[in-house]
């Protein structure tokens, strides 16, 4: 059994009654992106997670390279992947992307993000639920180490959306399931490989993400009732790899309200994971930054909680169209007869289509957003860099 790094026994002192100006629950992609935006703000920011930072990888860890550079975490890159292949039972199409993916080391990336979170505190604690608000309007967060209080609370706890009720419960919820293995590998590919085969997932896909001396090979099903373990093992064996070092999780495929009960939801807890591709790291960064900027304005007395909730909620919702398009494709693509899909992939593979389609896709959460200092804007269809009136940080 894997033993996760977390505080235990005597280290687990009570946190009952601890207060913070901002309480960020969850210390993975979304939570650390929010905390990073608050670095050096002078605010008392507390991040909590059930495990130590970087302890539990839950993804194949592939992200557009430009996003990793923009977040200052390019040192975590294990391999750059300028190509993608899409295989059906009939043919493999190989695309050269207008931008590249990079696979990265999760622990190194989290450490690099945390290093940028100057002045932010961290504690391990398991979050249980939202409690009753206090008389001064602060929220109460119940954890296994006591109840914490803060006026500004972020749920970056992943798909379970712990601070809202009722929670999503698989397999009934709009969640996909993914499982992968991480064998050692001497595969010298330069592509992120996608396998669209009904034998692997009736509605879903398989993948291989080369990551230097390791490969991340897995299968995801948009249908949460379909188990994918046998298929993951089969894919790994077919690719000449051993099915070892398993890791799996659910990931959302529907955008949800990004605010509720005065809580900010970021990343998978708000459904910020693209349908069809199941890509949720870049979007966790993107919406985490947007949320962090709103919070920073509140702690600088340039805004208040209500305005920040409204602006962040509207910003997230303004991306609804892109998420709906991706969800429609998630329904249409698996329904296409495999021979027709093979033909479509060949046509879409013309370089000008690849450039347009993948350019549009990146632009729904563009890396330039990490550099711009705008709050809650612009949405994906607006030009970048247009500061909102009175919103400059
Ligand atoms: C098999 C698989 C492969 C994937 N591959 C990719 C990929 O290559 N690229 C990509 O972009 N996306 C990928 N995804 C999706 C991606 O992993 C998620 O969208 C992303 O992790 C969301 O980030 P997050 O910070 O919102 O949530 P998470 O990464 O889930 O982080 C949640 C954090 O909250 C903590 N936490 C949870 N519950 C509690 C609690 N009760 N109390 C305290 N702490 C808690 C966890 O320990 C964790 O640190 C993959 C998903 C799966 C399942």
Which secondary structure elements does this structure contain, and how are they paired or packed?
Blueprint (H helix, E strand, L loop, with lengths): L21 E4 L3 H9 L7 E5 L12 E3 H6 L6 E11 L4 E13 L1 H10 L4 E5 L2 E4 L8 E5 L2 E5 L1 E4 L19 E7 L9 E5 L8 E8 L2 E8 L7 H10 L7 E7 L6 E2 L2 E3 L15 H19 L5 H13 L2 H16 L2 H11 L2 H13 L30
Parallel strand pairs: 1-2, 1-10, 2-6, 4-12, 10-17
Antiparallel strand pairs: 3-5, 4-5, 7-8, 8-9, 11-14, 11-15, 12-13, 13-14, 16-17
Helix pairs in contact: 1-5, 5-6
The structure holds flavin-adenine dinucleotide.
**Count of alpha/pi helices:** 9
Per the CATH scheme, the topology name of the largest domain is FAD/NAD(P)-binding domain
| CATH architectural grouping of the largest domain | 3-Layer(bba) Sandwich
Order of helices and strands: EHEEHEEHEEEEEEEEEHEEEHHHHH
- Strand tally is 17
The CATH H-level homologous superfamily of the largest domain: FAD/NAD(P)-binding domain
Strand order of the largest sheet: 3-5-4-12-13-14-11-15
Radius of gyration: 21 Å
- Let me know the average pLDDT: 92
């Amino acid at each position: 059994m894997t033993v996760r790094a977390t505080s235990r026994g005597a280290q687990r002192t009570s946190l009952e009654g601890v207060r913070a100006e901002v309480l960020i629950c969850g210390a993975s992609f979304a939570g650390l992106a929010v905390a990073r935006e608050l670095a050096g703000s002078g605010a008392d920011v507390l991040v909590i997670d059930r495990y130590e930072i970087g302890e539990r990888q839950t993804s194949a860890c592939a992200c557009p390279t430009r996003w990793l550079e923009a977040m200052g975490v390019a040192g975590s890159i294990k391999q750059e992947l300028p190509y993608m292949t899409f295989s059906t039972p009939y043919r493999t199409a190989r695309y050269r992307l207008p931008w590249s993916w990079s696979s990265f080391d999760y622990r190194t990336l989290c450490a690099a993000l945390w290093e940028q979170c100057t002045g932010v505190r961290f504690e391990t604690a398991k979050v249980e639920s939202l409690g009753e608000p206090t008389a001064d309007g602060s929220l109460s967060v119940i954890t296994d180490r006591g109840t914490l209080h803060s006026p500004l609370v972020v749920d970056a706890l992943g798909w379970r959306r712990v601070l809202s009720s009722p929670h999503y419960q698989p397999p009934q919820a709009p969640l996909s399931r993914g499982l992968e293995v991480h064998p050692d590998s001497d595969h010298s590919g330069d592509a992120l490989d996608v396998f669209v085969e009904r034998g692997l997932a009736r509605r879903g896909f398989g993948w291989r993400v080369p990551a230097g001396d390791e490969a991340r090979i897995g299968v995801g099903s948009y249908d949460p009732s379909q188990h994918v373990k046998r298929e993951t093992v089969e894919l790994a064996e077919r690719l000449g790899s051993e099915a070892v070092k398993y890791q799996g999780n659910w990931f959302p495929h529907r955008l949800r309200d990004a605010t509720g009960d005065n809580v900010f939801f970021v990343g998978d807890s708000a459904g910020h994971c693209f349908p069809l591709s199941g890509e949720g790291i870049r979007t966790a960064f993107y919406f985490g930054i947007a949320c962090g900027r709103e919070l920073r304005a509140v702690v600088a007395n340039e805004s208040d909680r209500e305005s920040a909730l409204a602006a962040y909620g509207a910003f997230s919702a303004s991306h609804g169209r892109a998420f709906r398009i991706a969800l429609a494709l998630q329904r249409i693509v698996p329904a296409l007869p495999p021979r027709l899909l093979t033909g479509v992939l060949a046509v879409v593979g013309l370089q000008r289509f690849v450039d347009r389609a993948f350019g549009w896709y990146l632009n729904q959460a563009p890396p330039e957003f990490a550099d711009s200092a705008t709050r809650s804007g612009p949405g994906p269809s607006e030009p970048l860099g247009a500061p909102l009136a009175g919103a400059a940080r």
